[in-house]
Write a structure and sequence with these properties.
With 528 residues, the chain is α/β, with parallel strands linked by helices. It contains 19 helices and 11 strands. Strands 3-2-1-4-7-5-8 form a 7-stranded mixed β-sheet, with helices on both faces. Helix 3 links the parallel strand 1 and strand 2. Helix 1 packs across helix 12, helix 7 crosses helix 13 and helix 13 crosses helix 14. The N and C termini lie far apart (72 Å).
Length: 528
C-alpha cells in the first residue's frame, strides 16, 4: 500500500505541474485578449473593402494527391466556383502509377485555364513531402517555360473546403509576413458521430486560443499543412538553402518547414480573421417569419476528418511521431526562448499521454472504492490517504477547468450543443490520443531497431456532401458585398423588400437602382 500511495502522489504532482503550463497559457490568453480589446477597440477592423483594394499577386496553389479520385473532382469544382480571386494557378501533384486520380484530374482540367497536372518522377506512394517537392519543381519549370512569376505559394489537401476570401487575405498580408496560417475547423457532423467531434474540439481550442497565444509570446507558428501561405522569399530561402523545399525525413513536413522558417529569422503568423455575413432566421428563433440577421464567419479551412476510431489512430499517431519524436531528434532545442517554449509544449504530449494512462488507472480505483460502499457497505480496497485525497481534489479542479476552456472554444465555433458534448467527448479523445501515442512510439522504436524509415500511412479522405457545403455557399448578396457593389444595410433593405414582393433579390436591387444589370450578371456568373 505504501508503494501505491507513493506512485499516486508522484503521478498527481506530475499532473499538477504538467497542467500549470496550460493554466499559464489560459491566463496569458485571457489577459492579453482583454488588453487588446481595450487598446484596439477604436482601430477599424479589416474590411472587405481593404481586401478588395489590394492588387492581386499571383498565387500558386499546391495540392498533393495519392489515390484522391473520390474527392479531387468535387474539391476542384467547389474551389473554382467559390474563390473570390482571379490571379492564381493550381498545381496538382500526382504519381505516374495513380491512374484513377489522373483520370479524375483530366475530367476537371476544363474548369480553369490555369489548372496544371504535375506528374512526379517516382511511382507512388512516396511521402507528402516528396510530392510537394515535385510540385515545387513543376512550378519552377512552368515559370521557366512561360516567364510567369509566382509571388505566393499556398498549400491545401484534396479534401479541403477553401474559404472564398482566404486568397484575398493571404494577398493582403504577404509579403510583409513570410508565412500566414489561417484556422482549420473540421466540418460539423451529427452529434452522435463522436470521432469527428474529437477533431473539432481539439482544433477549436488550438486554433482559437493556443496558436494565438503562441504567436503573441513570440514563439514559432507551425503550419497545419493546409490553409498555409508562404511568401516567395520564404520559399526561395529554404529551397536554395536545402536544395529541396520539404524534408522527407519526417512524417510532418509542414511542421518541419515552419520550424525551419523560424530558424532563418522569417516571420510566420496565425491569423484569426472573421467577416460578417447576412442570413435569415425565424424572428423568434424557432417561430415567425424569417428576418435578416448578421452572423460572423471565420476565414478558415474546413474539411472532413476521419469518421472511425482506426483511421483516427493512424492519422494522430503520424502527427505524434513526426512532431514529438522525429523533430525532437532531428532539430533539438535551438531557437529563442519563446521558440523553445513552443517546442516544449509540442513535445510534452507523450508525457501527457503517459500521465493520462496513470490518471485513468487511479480514477478507476477511486470509482471502484466509492462503489464498494454502495454495493457492500464497506471498502473492499484500501482507502486513500488524506494527502492523496487533497491531491485528487487539485487534479479534479484542474480537469474541470480544462473541460470549461475546451467547451468555451467549441461554443465559439460550433455552438452550445457541441460545447456541452465536448465534456464526454474529451474522455474518448484521451483514449484515442493514448492509443495513438502507443502506436507512434512502437513505430518509432521499430524503425530505429531495423534502421528503416517509418512508413507514411495514408488516411481515406471524403469530401463534404451538398448539404454539408450549403452553409459555406456564397449567395448573391455575399458576392455583391464582397465586390463592394452594395453595403450590408442595402442588402438588409432588399431582403425586407423581398418578403413583400416575393421577387428575386437581384431583380429587386436592380429595380431599386442599387446595382446595374451588368453587376448583377457578373455576380450571377460567379455563382454558376
Amino acid at each position: 500500500m505504501k508503494l501505491f500511495n507513493f506512485i499516486f502522489v508522484c503521478t498527481a504532482v506530475a499532473i499538477i505541474f504538467y497542467g500549470l503550463d496550460d493554466l499559464f497559457v489560459d491566463a496569458y490568453y485571457w489577459l492579453r485578449m482583454g488588453f487588446r480589446l481595450l487598446a484596439y477597440r477604436r482601430r477599424p477592423p479589416l474590411s472587405l473593402e481593404k481586401l478588395n483594394a489590394q492588387h492581386e499577386q499571383r498565387i500558386a496553389l499546391m495540392i498533393p494527391c495519392w489515390q484522391e479520385d473520390n474527392v479531387l473532382g468535387e474539391m476542384l469544382a467547389n474551389t473554382m466556383n467559390m474563390l473570390q480571386y482571379d490571379n492564381y494557378d493550381v498545381f496538382i501533384g500526382v504519381y505516374p502509377n495513380d491512374t484513377s486520380t489522373r483520370e479524375a484530374l483530366a475530367a476537371s482540367l476544363h474548369l480553369h485555364p490555369h489548372l496544371h497536372e504535375v506528374v512526379g518522377p517516382l511511382p507512388g506512394p512516396t511521402t507528402k513531402a516528396a510530392n510537394l517537392n515535385a510540385i515545387h519543381a513543376g512550378v519552377l519549370e512552368y515559370e521557366r517555360r512561360t516567364g510567369i512569376h509566382f509571388d505566393i505559394f499556398v498549400m491545401h489537401d484534396a479534401e479541403d473546403v477553401i474559404h472564398p476570401l482566404s486568397f484575398k487575405l493571404f494577398n493582403y498580408l504577404l509579403p510583409d509576413k513570410d508565412m500566414v496560417q489561417i484556422p482549420v475547423f473540421p466540418i460539423a457532423m451529427k452529434l452522435s458521430s463522436f470521432t469527428p467531434w474529437t477533431y473539432a474540439d481539439e482544433f477549436a481550442e488550438n486554433h482559437t486560443k493556443d496558436m494565438i497565444s503562441r504567436e503573441w509570446m513570440g514563439g514559432f507558428v507551425p503550419s497545419a499543412g493546409v490553409g498555409t501561405a508562404f511568401s516567395r522569399r520564404a520559399i526561395d530561402v529554404l529551397y536554395f538553402d536545402n536544395e529541396k523545399l520539404f524534408s522527407a525525413e519526417t512524417l510532418t513536413e509542414d511542421y518541419a518547414f515552419s520550424l525551419d522558417l523560424n530558424r532563418h529569422g522569417l516571420v510566420g503568423i496565425f491569423v484569426h480573421q472573421s467577416i460578417k455575413r447576412l442570413t435569415t432566421r425565424p424572428r423568434y428563433f424557432f417561430f415567425g417569419p424569417p428576418v435578416p440577421v448578421e452572423t460572423k464567419e471565420w476565414i478558415a479551412t474546413r474539411a472532413l476528418f476521419p469518421r472511425n476510431y482506426s483511421n483516427a489512430i493512424r492519422q494522430k499517431s503520424r502527427w505524434v511521431l513526426g512532431i514529438a519524436l522525429q523533430e525532437w531528434r532531428a532539430t533539438g532545442w535551438s531557437g529563442s526562448n519563446a521558440t523553445r517554449y513552443s517546442l516544449t509544449r509540442d513535445r510534452k504530449a507523450p508525457l501527457g499521454y503517459l500521465l493520462l494512462m496513470a490518471a485513468y488507472t487511479f480514477l478507476a480505483y477511486w470509482i471502484f472504492y466509492q462503489l464498494s460502499f454502495l454495493w457492500a457497505g464497506r471498502a473492499v480496497v484500501p482507502a486513500l490517504q488524506p494527502l492523496n485525497r487533497t491531491l485528487l481534489i487539485f487534479v479534479t479542479v484542474m480537469m474541470v477547468h480544462r473541460l470549461v476552456e475546451r467547451a468555451i472554444a467549441v461554443r465559439r465555433i460550433y455552438g452550445l450543443a457541441p460545447a456541452l458534448l465536448s465534456v464526454p467527448i474529451t474522455f474518448y479523445l484521451n483514449i484515442i490520443n493514448i492509443h495513438a501515442f502507443l502506436r507512434a512510439f512502437s513505430l518509432f522504436v521499430k524503425a530505429d531497431w531495423k534502421h528503416e524509415r517509418v512508413p507514411w500511412a495514408k488516411t481515406t479522405n471524403h469530401f463534404p456532401s451538398v448539404d454539408q457545403l450549403r452553409v459555406f455557399r456564397r449567395r448573391l448578396g455575399d458576392i455583391l458585398i464582397e465586390r463592394s457593389a452594395i453595403t450590408p444595410n442595402e442588402l438588409i433593405f432588399a431582403l425586407k423588400t423581398q418578403r413583400k414582393k416575393k421577387a428575386p433579390i437581384g431583380r429587386i436591387l436592380v429595380e431599386e437602382g442599387t446595382i446595374t444589370e451588368d453587376q448583377l450578371q457578373e455576380s450571377l456568373r460567379r455563382l454558376s
